[in-house]
Amino acid sequence: MSSGQRKGVFIRTYGCQMNVYDSDRMADVLRPLGYDLSPSPEQADLVVLNTCHIRERASEKVYSELGRLRDLKLERRREGADLVIAVAGCVAQAEGAEIARRQPAVDIIVGPQAYHRLPQLLAEAERKAAFRRAGKRVPGAGVLDTEFPPESKFDHLPEPGTVRAGSAFLSIQEGCDKFCTFCIVPYTRGAEYSRPVASVLQEARTLVSNGAVELTLLGQNVNAYHGEAVDGSTWSLARLLREIAGIDGLVRLRYTTSHPRDMDDDLILAHGDVPQLMPYLHLPVQSGSDRILEAMNRGHGRDHFRRLVDRLRGVRPDLALSSDFIVGFPGESDSDFDDTMRLIDEVGFAAAFSFKYSRRPGTPGAALDDQVPETVKTARLAALQALVAGQQHAFNRAKVGTTVPVLFAEPGRKPGQVLGKSPWLQSVYVEGPASLVGRIIDVRLTDGYALSLTGELIASLEEAA
Ligand code: SAM
Ligand code: SF4
User: Which of 52, 54, 188, 220 to probe ligand 2 with, by most ligand atoms within 8 A of CB?
Assistant: First the structure.
């Protein structure tokens, strides 16, 4: 809570890396208003829930968290203080009015394209609260801003302040025009938008000079990037990656999430000739059945995906792949699911995210008749996850005995341990001091497990320094 003039904000982030980026930028917006990050809602004056709407369970979590926050707010009021509650992100965008109805304790509802206006929204919420304290009637519960303003939020955000442990996210593209029939993103994040090249490059340079040795470029469809350069030309993701790779001090470059339809030739080649580009690519395929891919409106088939993988591995043989899979899309038969399992078998993944299909009201998939029973989805998900887990374990074991550069991210679970990431985004645990965090150091890998590896530093700490 308030200490002197400073106040506390607790931001809880749900969902994807783009939300992590947005939460960091909200902290940047709030800092000049006197807000520092608090470790818990109990220690905060303002709580922001930065929400995810991708699956039903993700949005339900928000309502139960809001119930807990309402109780905290009432407790504060009994003590003569207050707690400001804000809901941001995709649930705010999709269900703004519903949130205000279900939980009147919420003061601010702000969509993912409008959070640069948090200072005005906070001022308005404070005015409403002051009226209420004075016993006046205030129409409407909270303050709502879920517009897609014509000006981009990126033109109004302050310089990024947050680089955690040498690694930073950088959003370069937002929204989506692909309209996969299962997905809510085009409705919550809006039309596809690429940030101009100059603004991306400026942010990249600021992040590197603030200590980032690794940048991950983000977008809902990051490889659909088509940003305008100062000379009026349009840059692709590959061109942007090549330019950012040249920033002095930047060692690692990643991008996510890509769509198989937008993997152009230059981007594939970049995996072979940009050394900073890490040998790990997240390329969601969703299904291995052409029939289901068509029903999902993915715009690519199974062979297209297979050919892409071959070409990528042709230029970068050690490339590790991860993917997203949905099981139980309406109409998915046993044989469609077998096609997915065969694809996984043929490609070989180092990791994957897999989900049961979740019906999202307003998407075309929700209206389809042939919904798959929950028990079938559960069984398919378990089988798919077991297959991928075996591949991931084998991938980790295959690296044992090699020496790899590890970017240390945080202290490990056990005392005296630090956790870092290999170039293939594997978690690597090493005995060493917390002072390694933020540094890239060579590690000999000694054991490979299902989800991680252990290793040892090959140089003494003085040498590594
Ligand atoms: N744009 C990326 C792409 O096209 O692959 C994915 C973005 S989405 C935020 C992340 C993942 O959530 C998707 O790849 C998909 O696997 C999963 N997802 C999206 N909608 C879903 C739904 N209705 N049910 C289950 N999983 C879903
Ligand atoms: Fe959703 Fe499809 Fe767009 Fe990805 S490409 S964000 S899955 S609509």
Answer: 220
CB-based contacts of 238, cutoff 8 Å, min separation 6: 264, 266, 267, 269, 270
Can you tell me whether residue 107 is helix, strand or coil?
coil
pLDDT in tens, the chain (465 residues): 655 579 999 999 999 999 999 999 999 999 999 999 999 999 999 999 999 998 888 778 899 999 999 999 999 999 989 999 999 999 999 999 999 999 999 999 999 999 999 999 999 998 888 887 777 766 656 788 887 776 678 888 888 877 889 999 999 999 999 999 999 999 988 899 999 999 999 999 999 999 999 999 999 999 999 999 999 999 999 999 999 999 999 999 999 999 999 999 999 999 999 999 999 999 999 999 999 999 999 999 999 999 999 999 999 999 999 999 999 999 999 999 999 999 999 999 999 999 999 999 999 999 999 999 999 999 999 999 999 999 999 999 999 999 999 999 999 889 999 999 999 999 999 999 999 999 999 999 999 999 999 999 987 666 655
Judge if the beta carbon of residue 357 lies within 6 A of ligand 1.
Answer: yes
Model confidence, pTM: 0.93
CB of 18 shorter than 6 A to ligand 1: no
Pairing of strands 193-194, 234-236: unpaired
Helices (H), 348-408: 374-398
Number of Cα atoms under 13 Å in the Cβ half of residue 435: 5
